[in-house]
Write a structure and sequence with these properties.
The complex is a heterodimer. By secondary structure, chain A is an all-alpha fold. Helices cover 78% and strands 0% of the residues of chain A. In chain A, helix 1 packs antiparallel against helix 3 and helix 3 packs antiparallel against helix 4. The longest helix of chain A is centred in the middle third of the chain and has 29 residues. The two termini of chain A are 32 Å apart. In chain B, 74% of the residues lie in helices and 0% in strands. In chain B, helix 4 runs parallel beside helix 9. Classes of the chains: A mainly alpha, B mainly alpha. The interface between A and B is large, with 54 and 58 residues.
Chain lengths: 107, 271
């Protein structure tokens, strides 16, 4: 779990750093209007070396890392023969999922 | 100097001082972005949530490796903290920004006072069990080898408040979680801090997803700030033993009180 946390954090910071360097190279200001999050454009933006592509991907890794950590702990609790704790961890994932659903519904 | 560089430097300062004072980055980032760069408050809170997750990731890994944190207790409390963060994340888009500014001003005053107050609190004594040795098996399983967890009800209520505060104010919620774990539930301070740190990323990410989907996170403003905060927090943890923290605490008490005043003016619609 610790390795996953570290890896997720460093990969995310690396991606965001690439985005910031591309921002600086392109003369973009943090106060300029940024493109909205659009998963369909992510790959195109990355291959075109657009700063927004790296920034959005980095942000997705940042936000996904804690959930991935909880998912790993579900497996850990199951292996340790603690079904009740595994259930608790699944419920935490459910709450995160409900947040994403509600967020999408109101967007 | 470009605004991106200024934001990066500001992020480094917020991350470093947050780390030195044990405040986390979130508390300083929101005022930095709103007053320093004129970002709307809700957007600054979204950026701050991302920074909180980034800074908590590396330190939580250390706590996991050292096996200080209580993973079981943290996960049970997180179920409730995440619910608070979910509700807070949805409410944040319904209320006027001035309400958020008023809440933030209150938080700043609370933290300013806690910075100059003596640090060590004593946990409340264990509740008397009139039935003798009958203890909940569940609580026993959540307890550590040298401490017993008690007062689960107030602990769960406090966890919901921590989640709400995190989502509405862009903080990790450790300011609420650590006192709840230590003073109410009887968890030793070292374990409480580690357990809180382990939960912070999950709490902040629950509401950060809502902020991201609803357009509350600006990638251009987040990029330089998050990188700066990550670098600053790493630096802060390395130089903490060489800095006179008493003088720094006093200085930041004044800074936070002034910021609270400015935030209160914003809440009252005075620009």
């Amino acid at each position: 779990m610790a390795v996953l946390l570290r890896l997720g954090t460093y990969v995310a910071v690396g991606l965001i750093m690439c985005g910031v360097i591309l921002m600086l190279a392109g003369g973009l200001s943090p106060l300029d209007p940024a493109p909205a999050f659009d998963p369909a454009r992510l790959l195109d933006d990355l291959s075109a070396l657009q700063p927004a592509g790296f920034l959005w991907l980095g942000l997705l890794v940042v936000l996904a890392t804690p959930a991935a950590r909880v998912a790993v702990s579900v497996a850990g609790f199951v292996r340790a023969g603690e079904p009740r704790m595994a259930g608790v961890a699944v419920l935490v994932l459910v709450v995160i999922g409900v947040g994403i659903l509600f967020g999408t519904a109101g967007a | 100097m470009s605004i991106a560089i200024l934001m990066l430097v500001g992020g480094i300062a917020a991350g470093m001082f947050g780390s030195l004072l044990g405040l986390g980055g979130g508390l300083l980032i929101v005022p930095l972005l709103t007053f320093g760069f004129d970002l709307p408050l809700r957007e600054a809170i979204g950026v701050s949530l991302v920074c909180v997750i980034v800074t908590s990731g590396a330190s939580a890994a250390v706590f996991l490796e050292r096996r200080v944190a209580n993973l079981r207790l943290g996960m049970v409390l997180e179920m409730f903290t995440a619910v608070g963060a979910l509700v807070g994340g949805l409410v944040a888009f319904l209320v006027d920004e001035r309400v958020l500014a008023g809440l933030f001003a209150g938080l700043l005053v609370y933290v300013a006072i806690s910075l100059i107050r003596p640090r060590s609190g004593t946990p409340a004594p264990s509740p008397v069990d009139p039935g003798g040795a009958v203890r909940s098996t569940f609580l026993d399983r959540l307890s550590g080898p040298d401490y017993q967890v008690h007062r689960m009800g107030p602990g769960l209520a406090g966890s919901i408040v921590a989640g709400l505060a995190s989502a509405l104010l862009g903080i990790g919620g450790g300011l609420v979680k650590v006192p709840v774990l230590h003073l109410i539930m009887g968890v030793p301070l070292r374990v409480a801090t580690a357990t809180s740190n382990l939960m912070i990323g999950i709490t902040a990410s629950t509401s950060a997803w809502i902020y991201l989907i609803r357009g509350g996170i600006d990638p251009y403003a987040t990029g330089p700030t998050a990188v700066g905060v990550f670098v600053g927090a790493t630096l802060g943890s390395r130089i903490a033993h060489r800095v006179d923290l008493r003088a720094l605490r006093l200085l930041f008490t004044l800074v936070l009180l002034y910021t609270a005043f400015a935030m209160l003016r914003r809440a009252m619609g005075v620009q």
